[in-house]
């Protein structure tokens, strides 16, 4: 595969609207009262209002309407599963029409505002003198930092990786986040002032950090991956899908990334789809995605599943991994057929083999509790209604807590709401 051809496989998968398309699509919105699309948006963006602003040729105003609720609206417009959120709730679905393409309209509005503004659209309140520490420069941490800055507080963010952005920078398919979108969004967010990011800083004790700050917010995400729990799992050629995706995102020339001829991806979520599709686009001859249950049980959206099939990814269902074969490098995997027997999930004795020289594990991520002192439950940090953990003055949000689906948009909402909770906490301490 030629270098240009390979890299072109990672061009923007969603072609943005031009102005004519934007005006035409915005004209389809019915501007509903008590609009269900707002209810379906985790950040409660006033969708009919921003679409009406676009229709009235106030695109920059539309961008500000979006960003006032979701400061990372540009990325969310690209990667959010709008087909199961706002667009699924669109009332046009009930009349057998296509829903308004809210995601593409949102992207146009936010991109237009950021590209054509000479100053940040939001201003800080008078400085309070309070300093808050944030652990993790992912969507939750960045959202929290921006809202805290708007409220007049200063923020120091500690990020373990060289770049900020979290999963937006390291964990999403390259064809979803082109043109340095994640870094451009971070730079835009920082324009408000009052926020300092300390990259390459790993914090071992979040609770100890509280001693030097007025409050702490953690948006550490889910930093560990699950294992298959079978022999030979550490053999050459077997790796976590998140590492594979990170390498793709951090490599400009995709042609240099090694990929197998026969690739197996184990999993059923959007990460598994991202890994499978990108392996195919890198030049793998055969890519097989294997899942232990049926398609209706997959956590990936129907759009993502169809995308995999459109890219010639073979999806095998009702199959559980039982053996990895190979001495120095993976050669094949054996799977056992599964099914529902007497109402319960069962692994049968029927097996089959798939040839493989590369295996990508996308079976989920979990919280790294190594240095956490706050209470956790079922793999999540426990918080109260105000996002405060069991440690006074320490707050949490994003994938590390149970607040909804593990989505960028939910993490942004957690960060925003936690910022307001922190502000209330600081006011009550005075």
Topology summary:
Elements: H1 3-8, H2 19-26, H3 36-40, H4 47-55, H5 59-67, H6 73-79, H7 86-89, H8 102-116, E1 131-135, H9 139-150, E2 154-159, H10 167-170, H11 181-190, E3 195-199, H12 206-209, E4 215-218, E5 224-225, E6 238-240, H13 241-250, E7 262-267, H14 270-282, E8 286-290, H15 302-310, E9 314-316, E10 319-325, E11 332-341, E12 344-355, E13 358-362, E14 365-366, E15 376-377, E16 380-381, E17 394-396, H16 408-429
Parallel strand pairs: 1-2, 1-4, 2-3, 4-17, 6-13, 7-8, 7-13, 8-9
Antiparallel strand pairs: 5-14, 10-11, 11-12, 15-16
Helix pairs in contact: 2-4, 4-5, 4-8, 5-8, 6-8, 9-16, 13-14, 14-15
Mind telling me the CATH superfamily name of the largest domain?
Answer: FAD/NAD(P)-binding domain
Reported for the largest beta sheet, the result is: 5 strands, parallel
Compute the number of structural domains: 3
Give the low-pLDDT segments.
Answer: none
Notes on the structure:
This protein is α/β, with parallel strands linked by helices. It has three domains: 12-116, Alpha-helical ferredoxin (Fumarate Reductase Iron-sulfur Protein, Chain B, domain 2, Orthogonal Bundle), CATH 1.10.1060; 131-223 and 373-429, FAD/NAD(P)-binding domain (3-Layer(bba) Sandwich), CATH 3.50.50.60; 225-364, FAD/NAD(P)-binding domain, CATH 3.50.50. It is 34% helix and 19% strand. It has 16 helices and 17 strands. Strands 3-2-1-4-17 form a five-stranded parallel sheet. It has a five-stranded parallel sheet with strand order 6-13-7-8-9. A three-stranded antiparallel sheet has the order 10-11-12, with no helix packed on it. A hairpin with a 2-residue loop joins β11 (332-341) and β12 (344-355). The longest helix has 22 residues, at 408-429. It is globular, with a radius of gyration of 23 Å. It starts with a helix and ends with a helix.
């Amino acid at each position: 595969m030629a270098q240009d051809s390979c890299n072109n496989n990672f061009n923007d998968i969603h072609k943005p609207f031009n102005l004519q398309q934007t005006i035409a699509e915005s004209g389809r919105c019915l501007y509903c009262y008590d609009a269900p699309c707002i209810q379906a948006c985790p950040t409660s963006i006033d969708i009919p209002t921003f679409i009406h602003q676009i229709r009235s040729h106030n695109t920059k105003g539309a961008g500000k309407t979006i960003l006032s609720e979701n400061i990372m609206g540009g990325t969310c417009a690209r990667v959010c599963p709008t087909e199961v959120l706002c667009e699924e709730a669109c009332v046009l679905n009930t009349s057998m029409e296509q829903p308004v393409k809210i995601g593409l309209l949102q992207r146009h509005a936010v991109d237009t505002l950021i590209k054509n503004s000479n100053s940040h659209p939001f201003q800080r309140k008078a400085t309070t003198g309070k300093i808050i520490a944030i652990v993790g420069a992912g969507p939750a941490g960045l959202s929290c930092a921006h809202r805290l800055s708007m409220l007049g507080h200063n923020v120091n963010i500690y990020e373990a990786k060289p770049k900020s952005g979290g999963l937006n920078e390291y964990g999403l398919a390259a064809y979803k986040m082109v043109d340095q979108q994640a870094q451009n969004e971070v730079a835009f967010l920082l324009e408000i002032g009052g926020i300092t990011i300390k990259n390459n800083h790993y914090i071992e004790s979040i609770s100890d950090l509280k001693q030097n700050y007025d409050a702490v917010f953690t948006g550490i995400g889910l930093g560990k991956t699950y294992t298959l729990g079978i022999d030979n799992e550490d053999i050459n050629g077997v790796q976590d899908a998140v590492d594979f995706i990170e390498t793709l995102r951090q490599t400009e020339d995709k042609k240099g990334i090694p990929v197998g001829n026969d690739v197996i991806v184990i999993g059923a979520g959007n990460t598994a789809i991202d890994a499978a599709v990108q392996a195919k686009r890198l030049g793998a001859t055969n890519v097989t995605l294997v899942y232990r249950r049926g398609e209706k049980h997959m956590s990936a959206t129907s759009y993502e599943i169809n995308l995999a099939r459109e890219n010639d990814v073979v999806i095998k269902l009702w199959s559980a991994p039982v053996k990895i074969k190979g001495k120095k490098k993976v050669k094949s995997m054996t799977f056992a057929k599964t099914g529902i027997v007497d109402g319960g999930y069962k692994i049968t004795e029927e097996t089959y083999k798939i040839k493989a020289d590369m295996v990508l594990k996308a079976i989920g991520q979990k919280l790294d509790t190594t240095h956490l002192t706050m209470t956790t439950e079922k793999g999540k940090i426990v918080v109260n209604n105000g996002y405060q953990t069991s440690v006074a003055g320490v707050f949490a949000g994003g994938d590390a807590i149970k607040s909804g689906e593990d989505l960028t948009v939910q993490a942004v909402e957690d960060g925003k709401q936690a910022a307001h909770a922190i502000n209330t906490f600081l006011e009550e301490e005075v």
